[in-house]
Structure formats: structure tokens, C-alpha cells
Amino acid sequence: MPVTDLHAHWFPQPWIDLLLKEAEANGARMGRSERGHPMIDITGVPLKSVFRPDMVEPAIILKSMNESKVDVRALSLTNPMVYWAPPAFGLKLSQAYNDACVALHNAHPDRFLGTIMLPLQAPDLAVQELDRAAKLPGMRAVYMAMHVGGRNVDEKALWPVYRRCEELRLPIFMHPVNPLGIERMRNFHMRNLCGNPYEAGIAAASLIFGGVLDAFPGLDFMLPHAGGTFPWLIGRYDRGVAVRKELAHVKQPASAYLRRFYYDTVSHEPRIIRFLIDLVGADRVVVGSDYNFDMGYEQPVDFVERVPGLTAQERNLVLSDNAARLLRL
Amino acid sequence: MQAGGAGDTVRGGVAAIDTHAHWYPKEFISLLDREAAANGGRMGRNEKGIPVFSLPGVQPVSAMPPLMVEPELILAEMDRRGIETFVLSLTNPMVYWAPASFGLTLAQTWNNASTAVHQAHPERFIGSIQLPMQAPELAARELERAAKLPGLRVVYLATHINGKNLDDKAFWPVYECCEALGLPIFLHPLYPCGGERIATHFMRNLCGNTYENGLAAASLVFGGVLDAFPRLVVMLPQAGGVFPWLIGRFDRGVQVRKELRHMRQPASAYLRRFYYDTVSHHPRILKFLTELVGVDRVVLGSDYNQDMSCEQPIDFVASVPGLTQQDRQLILAGNARRLLGL
User: Fold this and answer.
1) Residue A242: partners with Cβ closer than 8 Å, 6 or more residues away
2) How many domains is chain A built from?
3) Residue B341, exposed/middle/buried by CB under 10 A (0-12, 13-18, 19+)?
4) Exposed, middle or buried by CB within 10 Å (0-12, 13-18, 19+), for B57?
């Protein structure tokens, strides 16, 4: 019964090398952090991602897993992802990431799984890369941001990608990037504390109200940060469906879609995870760590142990069984 | 469910107080009719003849139907719902959009109408104080005046003032006044941030309004307002919006982030500095809220009279699982009485 962490970030060295070689020619600026680590600066993106060794070196990641009772990690990219780049370079970055994931999985098949990065700024290229990457060993999910260059995820241009994910039976792991409302969130780290969970509410609303979940009934989505704001707004979403003409097309209450999503444990409040389990079901909650950011968990398993009233069965589901079902392990 | 049916049982002799109910006084509408255009707003009538206010390029527009204008109609609706008292407040467009002097005139007009309707129906209506926060000096002066008027027990503020968050130092003299006067602040979302990303599927309201509550609460907690004014009490509508559910994340931020190194307590230590209304539209989530913040911090609200409101708030409270009779009485009236100093 391996403990599986579905929210852990990795910047592969070959991917960083590609950025160092070609990012500037594609509109980004590469630099070094105060400690000398590579860093990327993209116009319009306030967060400048630093590629620190603990998020690059597999040996360090493995050590942290051993020290936190995590057996398996599904690795994913995070900010800056690849949508900022011209399509051809976005594709190249995606391929570099996906190939690195496979290589790492092959080196440690029992410890690492990969998630597929796609150049969603060019959906036709994205489908093409999805078809290629889905055949590679260890790639068990598709990774996507909660908006693509400011466009919400119900945009019709993305539907061919959803159709292919459903056909390939690959779940989609979502992640916030460059959140909305930045002009009001400059202070107190609110861009992250508020902005990131806000993105989840908008992404889930877009998938539900925009018809994506109806059109692709076999598609599963994972929301990080315990679903962010989404689960707690569900009553309001239901009310909207009941009374608003903008939602007259929605055939079921929004709450009927709660269980179309999986939710990780990164809420930092054990009682709120208890509420979440009561709301969506213990079979929809999976371990996340948000490795290796300061806003993540150093000890994601210990956090699960602190959730009040957790039965042995719920514990097994959250730590291992749900991830195995979702990723078809 | 029949109107008042379950309510009568739940109330158990308690005179229910609805803390979240909106009203556009006739005098306020007339003033807008006369002077909005000269001050950058637009008043008109929709196809049903209902007054509608709009600001160029801003959503939503503000419709002012008779049920939100005529006290007799409001009273009849309160009777139908089994509500003894409404705490009345303005909602969008509020008054911050206007040049300062017209903002003051609008606020005074609202406050005077509020006190008049209270005096006509002292058991049924409590008023809230609207302030021209775009000019904090004028706001403090109007607050001193309005606080002396009968029946005005609350200061009403939007979750931002023309895009400025509530921890902006310009507003602190107003907070100081509120604390000195012992008046709680009721917050309300207004023209939420997010622009194009929340333009579809009614997300401007469904997401945007509740996000505003999170930004406002974070700004008051992290910006030092609640430390500087330790007796200030703040009410968050829509069951606190997203704020209570982000509290773990806020606590983690306080532990690890340099932007929050000034914080001396976890964010969760401030959960009980707020009151939360019942407008979550989800009985179980409201139950979770009472467990998280304490049942003594939850007050009845309806968001009268919008389509997103809770039409039978007493029945809603009756549907919340696992509440005792005493819990319900606190939510229906006891907490509001304490909060309003009744």
C-alpha cells in the first residue's frame, strides 16, 4: 500500500538547460537568484521562478520522500509552465519535460510517476504531444494550469485536448498559475494565499458551467490546495443554477459535480480536511505536499494523521487507494 | 416548505433579526435622479419602469425595485418570512464612485432615511451608516454625526474603496472612530476584482463577491487593523465568503513568509474577531462554519432582496444539521443582539 503524493513539483535539469539556451530568444529573461540558482522572468508574470537544487536533483527529492514516509511521487511542473512561449518553443519545452519525466520514472519506477505537460497555447500541437507522451512509461496524468494565457478552461479551443484525455483515460491535474486580481493582491503574499485558491474556484466553475464535465463524462480532474475555494462555494453555485439565466443551460445542480473532482490535502487545517471528506467523500481526497515550496507540507503523511475522526479505511483511501484508482496503477 | 411553518417552531419565541437586507430609500433614488448624471453616474428606468443606476463600463448595474424601496412592502415580506427586524444597508452602487462632496450628500441622505424608517418602525428596522470613504475626513465627520441618530447601530463598508484595500492607512481614522463609538463594521462586496476572468457564467457574483470577503478579511488581519483597534468587530456577509476556508493557508503564510513576519499571532486567532452571516446556501457548510468559528459568531442573513438571497432564512437555519435549540436562538437573534448592542 504505497503512500502516493500527487502534488509535488520538479524542474528537470534538461528542461532548465533548454530554457538557459533558448528562453531569451523566445521572449523571457533568464537570470540568477541571490544564491546563484537559475531564475526566469516573464513579462506580465509577477512570480519569478527560481530553479533550486531541491526541486531539480532527484537524489534530494528521494531523500525528502524517505524522510516524510512518501513512497511515490507524481511529479509536475509549476510556474512558469510553458504557455508563455511561442507555440514551437512551448512544444519543445513540453517534450523536454515529458521526456525527462519518463527517464526519471525508468530510473526509479517504484518512486516516480510523471505528468504530461502540453503546449495548450496551440491545442493542435498539444493533442499531438499528448498522443506521443501518453505512450511513454510512467506518464499517468495530464497537467494543466487553471487558465491558459488568461483564457478560462472551458474555452472551446481546449476541447479536443479534453476529448483525447478522456479517450486515453488520463486524469487532468490542475494547478494555479499567475492568478487574477493581482492589482488587489500585491501585499502580504495574498497573490499566493488568496489568488491561488481563487483560481481553483474559477477553474471548477468554468468546467461545470462551461459544459466540459458534461461533454466528457469519463474525465477526472484533480484540484490542488484541497480544491481551493471551490468546495466551500458549492451552495452559492447551486443557488446560481437555480435562479440565474446565465446558468439556465446547466441541467444539474453544481453540487452534482463535486465528485467529478479529486482534491489534495494541502489545506494546512486538519479540521477543514475533515469537513472536505464529509462533503465530497473520503474516496475523493488524495495526499499532496506541494513539494518543495514554503507553502507546502514537509510531512504530508503526518498531516493526514492529524485529521480528526479519520477511520482506518478513510486513511488508506487518502494515503494510497484513491491515487491508485485515479492513476490506474 | 410553507412560509413561517418550520420557522415558528425554530423561533421558539425569539424575535429573529436579519442582519443582511438591502434597501434603497426613495430620497436616495430621487437624489440620484436629480444629480447622478452631473456626477458621473447614470440613472434610468428599465422596461418595467424600475430605477436603474449604472456606472460607465462597470458591472453590475443596480436595479431598485419596489420590494427594495417601499417600507410597507418590505414589512409585509418580513412578516411572510417570520422576521422581526431587518438591519438595513445599501448595496451597490454605494457612494464611493461619486466626487467627495456628492458622496457625502448621498451618505447623509441614506443615513437620514435610515433613521427615519427606524423611528417609524423602531422594532422592525435598524439602520446602518453609509460613509463617503473616498474622502476619509468627510467620512469621519459624517460618522460622528450619524452615530448620534436613533437606530443606526452599524457602520457599512465595501470590501474595497475604489480599488484600495481596507488596510490602507487613509481609513484608519474611520476605524478609530468606529471603535471609540462601539459600532461594528458590516462589510459587503462591491464591484469585485477579476475582470474578464469572471465575466461569464455569473462568476462575477458567484466567485467574485465571495473572493472580495477573503481579500477584505486578509487585509484587515495582515494589515494590522484588527491589532490597532482591538475592540473593533467586523461582520462578513455570505457566511464569510472564502475567508474561513483559507484560514489554514493564511496560518501557514504567517509561519513561513517574510511578507507576514510582522504578524504576532496566527491568522486563525482572528477568526473570532469576525461575525459571519448565514448566506452560504448550504446547510452542512454552515454547520462546518459554526464548528470552525463558534456558534456565537454566526448571525442570520438573507441578502434581501436579490435572486442570490436566501428567501426563507429561518427555514434555512432549521435545515442546518446538528444545531441545538440554543444554537438556533443564538443565530436567529442572540448573537445579533450582542453585536448590535441591543
Assistant:
1) A253
2) 1
3) exposed
4) exposed
In degrees rounded to 5, what are phi and psi of residue A153? -80, 0
Residue A329 is assigned to a structural domain of this protein: no
Query: What pLDDT sits at residue B11?
Result: 60
φ, ψ of residue B105 in degrees (nearest 5): -60, -45
* pLDDT score recorded for residue A315: 98
Tell me the C-alpha to C-alpha distance, in Å, between residue A269 and each of A106, B80, B86, B296.
36, 41, 35, 21
Q: Does B61 touch chain A (CB under 8 A)?
A: no
**Does pTM top 0.80 for this prediction?**
yes
CA of B342, closest CA in chain A: separation in Å?
Answer: 31
Domain at A233, CATH number: 3.20.20.140
Residue window 186-225, chain B: list those with CB within 8 Å of chain A.
Answer: 193-198, 200-203, 205-207, 210-211, 214-215, 218-219, 222-223
* Residue of A192, A246, A279 lying closest to B284 (CB–CB): A279
| Cα–Cα distance measured from residue B303 to residue B19, given in angstroms and rounded to the nearest whole number | 8
B282 by Cβ neighbours in 10 Å (0-12 / 13-18 / 19+) ranks as buried
Which residue has 509535488 as its cell numbers?
Answer: A8
Class of domain B11-340: alpha beta
Residue B231 forms contact with A (CB below 8 Å) = no
Q: How confident is the model at residue B5 (pLDDT cuts 50, 70, 90)?
A: very low
* Residue A110: inside a domain: yes
Place of cell 491589532: B227
Q: Is B270 on the interface with A (CB under 8 A)?
A: no
Structural domain that includes position A281: 4-324
